[in-house]
Amino acid sequence: MAKQINIEKEKLVEIKGNGLILDIEEDSFGRILVRVESEEGGRRIIIKQHEEDSRTIVYSLENPPQGPKLTLVK
């Protein structure tokens, strides 16, 4: 993944990687908005500070649940 993202040209960036989708955009007040989704859905997204750089936020997926899984079939 990129270490720095420049959204000046498009004002909207979508990043996909490691099962996550991040939509990054700038609002009318100049704030950077990040929307995070799981590609598969149904998994919890963990958000924490990077261990070495406290200015960096890390997004990751929790480990998949172990045991029985319910899947609906039409």
What are the defining features of this structure?
mainly beta; two-stranded antiparallel sheet; extended; 74 residues; 5 strands
What do you see in this structure?
The chain has 74 residues and is mainly beta. The chain is extended, with a radius of gyration of 15 Å. The chain is built from no helices and five strands. It has strands spanning 12-17, 20-26, 32-38, 45-49, 57-61. It has a domain at 12-61. The strands form two sheets. A three-stranded antiparallel sheet has the order 1-2-3, with no helix packed on it. It has a two-stranded antiparallel sheet with strand order 4-5.
Low-confidence stretches: none
Strand content: 35-45%
Strand order of the largest sheet: 1-2-3
Report the order of strands and helices.
EEEEE
**How many strand units?**
5
Helical run tally:
0
- The Rg value, from CA coordinates, equals 15 Å
Terminal Cα separation, in Å?
Answer: 37 Å
Apparent shape? extended
Specify the biggest β-sheet.
3 strands, antiparallel
Helix content: under 10%
What value does the average pLDDT take?
80
Computed structural class:
mainly beta
Topology:
Blueprint: E1 12-17, E2 20-26, E3 32-38, E4 45-49, E5 57-61
Antiparallel strand pairs: 1-2, 2-3, 4-5
Write a brief structural summary.
By secondary structure, the protein is mainly beta.
